[in-house]
Amino acid sequence: MHRVSALLFMAALLGGCSDSQTCAKRSVVSESACSTSQDCVDMGFQSLVCLDGLCRRTCVVDSECLPNKDDLEDEPDICLQELNALPPAICEAQVCEIACPDAPCAAGESCRNGRCVYAYESFEIPPDDDLADLRRQGWNGIETEFTNPKTEIVFRGILGCDLGDERCAGPASEGERFATLERQSLQVREEVAPTCRPCACCLQCQLSTADEWLRAEGTCPGERPMPLACPATTPAYCQNVCDACTACTNAPPERVGMNLTSCEVLPAQKTCSSCAPCESDVITCTAATCPMCAAEPNSTACIMCVQDNCLESQACQDCRVCDAATSCLVNDPGSAACIQNVTQCEALGDDGCFPAAVSYGRAVLNNLEQALVSDVVDLAQASGQVVLQFDYVPFNVAETYRPGVQQVAPQDWPVVPQEVRVDLCGGNCESEASWQLGVLDRGGMAVIPPVNRRNNGLLLGSQTPLDWTAGQVRVVVPEALRTPQFRFRFVPSLATDTRVGIDNVMVRRLP
Amino acid sequence: MMTRALALCAALSFVGCGEETVSVTVSLTHASDPVLDPYAPSVGLSKVRISVDGPTAADDVAAEIDTEARSVSFAGLPPLESAAVQALGFDARGNIVAFARLDGVELLADADLTMPLRRNLAYVTHQRNSAQDNPQSVVYQIDLATRGLVNKVRLPGVAPTARSITARGGASLLLTVEDQGRGSVVQLSAQDHSMTSITLPVTQQVTYGVAGSPTGVVVGGGQVNLVDLDGGGMVEEVDDRVGGRVLDGVMSLDGRRAIVVVDVSPGVLDIDIVNRTVNTSNALPDAGGVALSPDGRVAYVTSLTSPRVAAVDMSNGRVRVLNGFAEGVGEAVYADELDSVLAVRINSSNGSGRVLGFIAPFDTALDSETAVKTLFYPTGIASDGSGRRAIVVAAGTSTQTAGLTVIETTATTLPQGASALYPTDPDDRFFDGPLSFGQRYQPSDVAVVYGR
After folding, report:
1. How far is A52 from chain B (nearest CA, A)?
2. With an 8 Å Cβ cutoff, are B78 and A2 in contact?
3. Cα B263 to chain centroid, rounded
4. How many structural domains does chain B have?
5. How many domains are contained in chain A?
């Protein structure tokens, strides 16, 4: 019965000590063969077991391959010197092995924490830096229009901190920090331009029931709607006001942009008669009065100058008065200025100007923007079975969610699985077409978490080291992707405030 | 072949007992069902470490085989009167995802041994809930490494309720079942999940059995009965004067003795299966649980109200009282590598649970500060065959808070725990608008294949 290591541990735990004055052998493997662990004891390897014909140290984690400091307190100095001369060891496949650089790495590999790797990341602060930051550490280096600020590096926190945010995120798999993957949700970005009163009312009407319109018709347009869906055809009760919209002044066609719903298109195509001259007046005035705008048209000085000097023409007053009236009815309804604005706006009749959406920018991040994308990893010289390996913890990931779809009513948003995809790319990684979903070494697609690790109730900070050991993933890097430009990415498709933690990420050749 | 003199010499552990050695070949079998097959890719088995371990220090030897190999041979072993042969199946991270074990193997001559390698699965029964699809009839299989639900089986019968579950080594799980007022023992095969049933004279509570011994002990309903687990029938009613609710129990590795803890005084039943007798003991007040040492020689009985532990010698039933835990505890398991008893303490005022430790060889309690918190209202604890990982299931305060806790101990680490909500059922679902959600059952009892 082999209980040597357990009893040594107990002795340390209970305050016992060794009175041995001879140096115990600390190597993790013997040179001579054994038949049983008694042979190891006879050779002086007190804590090794006879495994596969040699005396070896079994382990679960790297720390078990290091000498226990408690065991060393009573060792003679000569033994400590002997010990320090030994090469460090790591736990590899549950057996202690000599670590690199004493065990040499192959071409293209570097030695990180005793292991030969092509790339390694534990999201710790780099030695030559004072900040843990994904971009500074080489992640998300491909330029994209949008970025995902939700995915970030989090810190385990100081003792006693309130668990649950990025500064107090609980234990990491390795070190003090790990990354949390989260999805950046839908964000609407609209461009607005003036349209005529009938067009603003036509839009409002189409989004109202007949009764609602009956009540609103006399005071329309009210608050500007932001429709996600429109009726298939114009309701009969809206026909008159929408016909009047058709008769309004045409706006420059180039102002009509993307992602408008069908009932927003006509208002976007129309304007009121005062706004085009106002725009012309402003251009002339700006050139003459606000020279700073030539160099910096978006500067505060330029904007202030234009507002102070170039909006006083009658055309500009007419172009702006209805918008001002709409605003003041909310903010300052009884004031003399507001009453005057309302009066002037009503006087303009169908030629009153109201804001309308003319374009919606892209609101959904694409995969490359949503993902945590690795730096380039040179795998040109890689050989053997190469894998992307990492540990993860799902924080109460439900089975499905409903990602917002731009210009689609919420009730029509699809129900899709919550998951994080692990994609690989061998080059030209700016192009979405260059990415492919990875395959796990045990088979199946590289999508986490599996169905049976969802709904675990774990909140950020409540995980323990055991939670990290439950989730290690190895994604096979196929030979076709072993290029100098290899990258990998984690693409989160998760509900709002749902996270998956990752840590101890490495690209390595399996021993 | 050894001489009798050499065998005696080896049995007495004399040094230099001659030069004769034995060779042993250990072969592994496995289930073919992809859910139960430890070699199925989804399990992530990366290698198997097989060891032969005798009764003395450092008489062990081990070898590792990859997932293609099914056997390994050891040569040059000293003859052993009684050895434990064990297989640990590791995944890449070092989690034990498969296990096999043979106890009490005589290795006085060359031998070929075969044992079934099983996935490291916990089997969990559930509480009744009328808003759900008869969870009391459903047994989950939960992966001890990932804590994920991998499969479930439904008990046969009209309206069966599983009252308890225990492991019969790597052979089967023993479920004590009530169905329309009738009691039975349902044996769920660990090989293929086939089920056989033995009818009981009354509704009882728990069944204990070990692999290699046909006789099972059924306790509860005021009776102690013996059943033939291999033949499938009642053997004998041993005692009909046993009251109380069963809290915990163990059976010796040779199947000759069982120690069962009940919630009445005297709280410890010492069941001699060979002689068909039941003795009671009041060595401790309010006995709460019992755990068996890895060699099967000692049963450690805990007390709900006293920190002390009663060590029962499984060969003769003698009791020795030890200092025990930091506090009074209940249901218990053994953590082999740490040589410790782990036991559950429930705060009766709010249902919160903790698992405390007691280092048996040193008769020393682990500090209360090292206790592992469980979720609320823990209802069962079981350890896996390796004795490295234990699982505690907890009913929670509602279906929303039911959960489980895994606890890992190694020779060099104190108990580490990790809790998670209980996995939701993939089939029993409810709708909230267009989204559907799995029901979360509340567990009632747990056993691990090969666990003790």
Report:
1. 4
2. no
3. 21
4. 1
5. 3
Size of interface A-B (CB pairs under 8 A): 167
**CB-nearest partner of B411 from A9, A37, A451:** A9
* CB-CB neighbors (< 8 A) of B75 in chain A: 35
pTM of the model: 0.83
In angstroms, the first-to-last Cα distance of chain A is 30
| A107 found inside a domain | no
Residue of B60, B150, B408 lying closest to A36 (CB–CB): B60
What ipTM does this complex have? 0.85
Say whether both A65 and A161 belong to one domain: no
For residue B93, is it within any domain? yes
Chain-centroid distance, C-alpha A40: 51
Structural domain of A488: 120-185+365-509
pLDDT given for residue B279 in this prediction: 92
Nearest CA in chain A to B416: A466
CB contact under 8 A, A93 and B46: yes
Looking at residue A144, which CATH number applies to its domain?
2.60.120.260
Query: Which residue range is the domain that position B38 belongs to?
Result: 4-118
Per-residue pLDDT reduced to its tens digit, B320-359: 999 999 999 999 999 998 899 999 999 999 999 999 999 9
Task: Please check whether residue A446 lies inside any domain of the structure.
Answer: yes
Instruction: Say whether both A275 and A321 belong to one domain.
Output: yes
- Check whether residue A277 and residue A400 sit in a common domain: no
Give the closest-approach CA distance of B339 to chain A in angstroms.
8
CB nearest to A2's CB, from B21, B53, B416 = B53
